[in-house]
């Protein structure tokens, strides 16, 4: 097992800013990211970014990502292509790279794990060709591949429409809500029906916004609080972004969807506090100055879900099975999980918890504020037994 | 004749800079010989050729393709060089890789 002073998970804007800040204080920093390079979601974004810092102001996301990655001090050890799949007691992180596994014990941990895209079930949503806007953006902008030729955009996202056109993909239709979509095709997405009208498409993209992805904070069993703007529970954080677990901080989208400038400010503040720097008050004020008012997250209807509609893609659990579990007395997301297996797969309900919460809310009348996420357990990602076993060589030796 | 990297490649994007030409490598998909670019995710190499079904699901046999794009869903699991459950959205393509559609939970095959 390795020992480090500061471990940062996620090399997006928040993680990069946190790494630079800690490094300025001379701290030994390890920065871990599952992706092949640093920059986070900015790497595949074309939208113009707003500073501070001034050096990214007005730049398209992919250029801002490059600027931030280039500013990373040489003293920071960047582990790209490395999955942090578990956060254990005493701030021990389990990692797996392409070739090796490791354990890192850190004095301070900053979780800057970003977000995933919000999805919502509709008939046909498991067909190949239905994917997140993020998946399409990565293909188009990082790899220069068109995931289809004729697209439906689900969500109010003008930037995505422009991005698709620039990549030569026709935007056939845009709908604001997933509730009106029915899709079909023979083994592949071939059409969507919107208000009774059928359109030929081979791509349907979820552009409903992002949801925070603080899964490792849940491993640490930190206290949670409902966040209306994100429509889910998030780690409770102090003025310095520390969770209820001492030494574990959350910064950036993982703690609540925010702007790039806010993510950078959060990374700097959490890092300054983590290393005991003297500029905490100043950085806190800078973050507060960037505050923006956010609306309550939309909650779409679940009442019209056909009973055979798949809600949990991985375990293939249907709306009918979840309704039955609720009618038999399930009162929490964990109850539904135990009774139906929804969320028991490796992705741990990341694409179904929001829907299950909405179904519990609609059918059993439970306030969303009371619907805590399902228990998260390692591994947070698919990891081979070989990688897990490697962690015990110290013990066996 | 230059190798066919697939009909879905974007050439001449109006905003993104031209990229350095990557190393073209051969790989196979369900026994079919194809070309891709070394280091790009296997998923990108497949989608460039219009290949959208990556696996089928247990019990239902339902086809699935790329969904999260970041290795977060399990819709993008394939058998690569005999190893099942490889996340093709984040696994780089390498020369000579043998990629197969994963049936259900997959099985270990001769590499």
Tally of individual helices of chain B: 1
Large-scale geometry of chain B: globular
Average pLDDT level of chain A: 96
How many helices of chain A?
12
Average of the residue pLDDT scores of chain B: 94
- Main beta-sheet strand count, sense and barrel state of chain B: 5 strands, mixed
Given as residue ranges, the uncertain stretches of chain A (5+ residues, pLDDT < 50) are: none
Report Rg of chain B. 14 Å
List the quaternary state of the chains.
heterodimer
Tell me the number of strands of chain B. 7
Please state the structural category of chain A.
Answer: alpha/beta
Within the largest sheet of chain B, what's the order of strands? 2-1-7-5-6
Residues in helices of chain A, as a percent range: 25-40%
Largest sheet of chain A: 7 strands, mixed
What is the general shape of chain A?
globular
Instruction: Estimate the strand proportion of chain B.
Output: 25-35%
List segments of chain B where confidence is low: pLDDT < 50 over at least 5 consecutive residues: none
Radius of gyration of chain A: 21 Å
Summarize it.
With 397 residues, chain A is an alpha/beta fold. Chain A has twelve helices and 20 strands.
Structure description:
The complex is a heterodimer of chains A (397) and B (111). Chain A has 397 residues and is α/β, with parallel strands linked by helices. Chain A is built from twelve helices and 20 strands. Chain A has helices at 13-24, 61-70, 133-142, 158-166, 215-219, 260-274, 280-289, 319-327, 333-340, 353-364, 385-390, 393-396; strands at 2-9, 29-33, 77-80, 83-88, 92-96, 101-111, 115-117, 130-132, 150-154, 170-175, 181-184, 191-194, 197-200, 203-206, 210-212, 224-227, 232-235, 248-250, 310-312, 317-318. In chain A, the strands form six sheets. In chain A, strands 1, 2, 3, 4, 5, 6 and 18 form a seven-stranded mixed sheet that branches. In chain A, α2 links the parallel β2 (29-33) and β3. Chain B has 111 residues and is mostly beta strands. Chain B is 6% helix and 26% strand. In chain B, β1 and β2 form a beta hairpin. Chain B is globular and about 45 Å long. The N and C termini of chain B lie far apart (30 Å).
């Amino acid at each position: 097992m390795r020992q480090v002073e500061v471990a940062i998970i996620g090399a997006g804007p928040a993680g990069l800013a946190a790494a630079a800040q800690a490094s300025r204080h001379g701290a030994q920093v390890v920065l871990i990211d599952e992706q092949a390079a640093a920059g986070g979601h900015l790497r595949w974004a074309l939208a113009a970014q707003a500073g501070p810092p001034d050096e990214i102001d007005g730049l398209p996301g992919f250029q801002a990502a490059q600027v931030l990655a280039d500013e990373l001090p040489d003293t920071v050890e960047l582990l790209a292509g490395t999955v942090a799949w578990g956060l254990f007691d005493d701030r021990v992180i389990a990692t797996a790279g392409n070739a090796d596994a490791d354990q890192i014990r850190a004095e301070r941990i900053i979780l800057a794990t970003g977000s995933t895209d919000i999805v919502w079930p509709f008939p046909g949503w498991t067909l190949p060709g239905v994917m997140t806007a993020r998946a399409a953006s990565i293909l188009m902008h990082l790899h220069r591949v068109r995931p289809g030729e004729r697209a439906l955009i689900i969500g109010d996202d003008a930037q995505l429409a422009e991005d698709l056109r620039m990549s030569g993909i026709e935007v056939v239709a845009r709908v604001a809500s997933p509730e009106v979509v029915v899709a079909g095709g023979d083994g592949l997405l071939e059409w969507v029906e919107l208000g009774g009208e059928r359109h030929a498409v081979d791509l349907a993209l979820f552009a409903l916004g992002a949801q925070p992805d603080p899964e490792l904070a849940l491993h640490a069993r930190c206290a949670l609080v409902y966040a209306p703007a994100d429509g889910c529970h998030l780690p409770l954080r102090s003025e310095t972004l520390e969770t209820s677990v001492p030494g574990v901080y959350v910064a950036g989208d993982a703690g609540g969807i925010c702007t790039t400038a806010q993510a950078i400010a959060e990374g700097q503040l959490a890092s300054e506090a983590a290393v005991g720097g003297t500029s905490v008050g100043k950085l806190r004020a800078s973050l507060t100055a960037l505050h923006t008012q956010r609306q309550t997250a939309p909650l779409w209807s679940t009442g019209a879900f056909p009973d055979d509609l798949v809600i949990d893609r991985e375990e293939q659990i249907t709306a009918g099975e979840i309704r039955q579990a609720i009618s038999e007395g399930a009162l929490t997301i964990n109850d539904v999980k135990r009774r139906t297996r929804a969320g028991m797969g490796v992705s741990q309900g990341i694409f179904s918890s929001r829907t299950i919460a909405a179904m519990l809310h609609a059918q059993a009348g439970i306030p969303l504020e009371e619907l805590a996420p399902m228990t998260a357990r390692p591994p947070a990602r698919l990891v081979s037994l070989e990688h897990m076993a490697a962690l015990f060589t110290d013990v066996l030796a | 004749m230059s190798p066919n990297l697939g009909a879905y490649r974007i050439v001449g994007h109006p905003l993104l800079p031209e990229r350095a030409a990557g190393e073209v490598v051969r790989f196979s998909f369900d026994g079919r010989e194809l070309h891709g670019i070394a280091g790009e995710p296997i998923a990108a190499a497949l989608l460039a050729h219009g290949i959208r079904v990556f696996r089928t699901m247990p019990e239902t046999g339902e086809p699935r393709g790329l969904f999260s794009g970041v290795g977060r869903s399990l819709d993008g699991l394939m058998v690569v060089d005999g190893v099942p459950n490889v996340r093709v959205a984040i696994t780089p393509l390498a020369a000579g890789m043998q990629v197969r559609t994963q049936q259900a939970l997959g099985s270990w095959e001769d590499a």
